[in-house]
Amino acid sequence: MSIVLQDASYSYQGKYQTVRAVDGVSYAFEYGKLYAIVGKSGSGKTTLLSLMAGLDLPTEGEILVEGKSTREWDRNALRRDAVSVIYQNYNLFPLLTVSENIQYPLTLKKTPKKEAKELAKKMRERVELPESYDNRLPSHLSGGEQQRVAIARALAQGCKIILADEPTGNLDTANTQNIVRILRDLAHEDACTVIIVTHDTAVADQADEVLQMKDGRWV
Predict the structure, then answer these.
(1) What is the pLDDT of residues 16-29, one digit of tens each?
(2) How far apart are CA 67 and CA 73, in angstroms?
(3) pLDDT digits (tens, 9 = 90+) for 127-149
């Protein structure tokens, strides 16, 4: 299993009361599948994604990533070596080119420059962007193109677990279909675990399994 949730909960102190954003959730995610986590705003789905990415630790229970609790992981290493995160707003570096953005995680891993550039090229081709885009800045790209660069950057990390928080939230229907197809191919062809948090039923319909959250629990 890639990620295993063991009665995981997360609580924080709100203005007037303690909020239990995730409440005793258990599940085992497998490699080679595309998952969609759906639910209304405030249902706990984005908090759960943050816990799986190691951005926070559960206040109760455990989350195992590749067999090791997120409490035991160096959490920077977790997001560098095991889990890639894709965001709704792309999180590209505005002053770096497309190629440089894709190479960024390889720079953190101290990959030789020539090797990093070649791998970035392969990942850019994987998300179906032409070579002419290599030297463009994010401000010269459409939303769909920026999200493809974000996916290519995640692929360059070489992680087998990809977490995507509303990755199509800012995109039109055509770009949404393209992004979901790329993510589905990563699950089915590359045997990745791909977990998407989404409000979009059209996105959820493409998943192998759909998990619905309400009040921090599975429905």
Answers:
(1) 889 899 999 999 99
(2) 10
(3) 999 999 999 999 999 999 999 99
**Is 124 within 8 Å of 152 (Cβ atoms)?**
yes
110: left (phi over 0), alpha (psi -120 to 50) or beta: left
Task: Look up residue 192 and give its amino acid.
Answer: C
Q: Do the strands 33-38 and 193-197 form a parallel or antiparallel pair, or are they unpaired? A: parallel
Q: Provide the token pair at 25.
A: 């959730």
CA–CA dist 84, 163 (Å, integer): 6
Q: Which amino acid is at 71?
A: R
CA distances from 49 to 54, 64, 118 (A): 9, 13, 31
Supply angle C-alpha 17, 22, 27, rounded to 5.
Answer: 165
Residue 189: partners with Cβ closer than 8 Å, 6 or more residues away: none
C-alpha atoms less than 13 angstroms from C-alpha of 179 in its C-beta half-sphere: 32
Q: How far is CA 112 from the centre of its chain?
A: 26
Q: Is 24 left (phi over 0), alpha (psi -120 to 50) or beta?
A: left
Tell which residue, 81, 69, 59, has the closest CA to residue 3. Answer: 69
> Using an 8 Å Cβ cutoff, are 211 and 38 in contact?
yes
Helix (H) or strand (E) holding 35: strand 33-38
Say if pTM beats, i.e. exceeds, 0.90: yes
